[in-house]
Specification:
This protein is of the alpha+beta class. It is globular and about 55 Å long. The protein folds into two domains: 144 residues, Beta Polymerase, domain 2, CATH 3.30.460; 100 residues.
């Protein structure tokens, strides 16, 4: 207890506090659990990459992302986590997904090319296990992200790090990911998929990063899609293009408003999620 009190005293600027309620002490515990979760994952004999916010140093509310390269690795990892006392499935939806998957009744991977399951390490650290079709190496995963600051990871097979983030971590200025080819050839369906990452712009601004450049790049992509003409003789395509443009106008409006204020309300966030879902 003595060491905990000294730790709290130093970080709370000379004010002794009850260690159990001290945010600094709790953050220290969470940071330690993040490290332990990563070390456990590094020991697993699977093909995949540890990436995401856990590569940027600790901040409150952090999680760990691990992208696996094939279904065999996905199965090995989730069963190892399920049978480990260090991991728990705490959310009802995630438990439902797990049970449906092992009963071969949940086949989201072969339908849409994506499988995700969320475990918790020591009941406190979310660990997201993700399988995306056609992404079978560390470069493929990192180059699919929208922002450079998170484009770094540790490959479990080679035991090597790959960092595509440039100097963004030190400058705290995020840019769009130059390795993501969607930014160079903005095809409508690919832009729609990329926009699923848009919320990260607002999230990382709250974490202390300047993400204006990324927001402006998203707006530029949206403008390219809004310029598209209906050149196909297809009623189905015409309707999808019309709905897509209507949703993109709302998304662009929210981005522009955020650039003016650097604030986004809960109502705007929910509207943003709805419009992205409708793309």
């Amino acid at each position: 207890m003595e060491n905990k009190t000294i730790f709290c005293y130093e970080l709370c600027e000379g004010e002794f506090m009850d260690c159990g309620n001290c945010r600094h002490y709790k953050n220290n515990i969470m940071e330690e659990n993040i490290k332990l979760a990563i070390e456990w994952l590094k020991e697993q004999p699977v093909r995949g990459v540890i990436t995401g916010s856990c590569m940027l140093g600790y901040f409150e509310g952090q999680d760990v992302d691990i992208f696996v390269y094939d279904e065999k690795s996905f199965n090995k990892l989730i069963f190892a986590m399920y049978h480990s006392p260090k991991f728990q499935i705490l959310e009802p939806l995630e438990l439902w997904k797990f049970n449906r998957y092992i009963d071969h009744a949940y086949d989201n991977y072969h339908k849409v090319g994506l499988l995700t399951l969320k475990f918790y390490f020591n009941t406190c650290i979310p660990v997201n296990v993700i399988l995306k079709k056609s992404y079978n190496n560390i470069f493929g995963i990192l180059s699919s992200f929208d922002m450079d600051i998170i484009s770094k990871g540790f490959d479990l097979e080679t035991k090597q790090y790959l960092d595509l983030s440039g100097d963004s971590a030190s400058t705290k200025i995020a840019s769009w990911n130059k390795w993501n080819t969607t930014f160079y050839d903005p095809e409508m369906w690919e832009v729609n998929k990329l926009l699923r990452q848009l919320e990260r712009v607002f999230k990382y601004h709250r974490r202390g990063y300047n993400t204006d450049v990324v927001a402006l790049k998203y707006i530029a992509l949206i403008d390219e899609i809004l310029k598209l003409q209906d050149i196909f003789n297809s009623a189905n395509y015409s309707e999808k293009l019309k709905v897509n443009k209507e949703n993109l106008k709302v998304i662009k409006m929210i981005c522009n408003k955020w650039l003016d204020t650097h604030e986004i309300t809960e109502e705007q966030t929910e509207l943003l999620k709805l419009k992205i879902h409708e793309l």
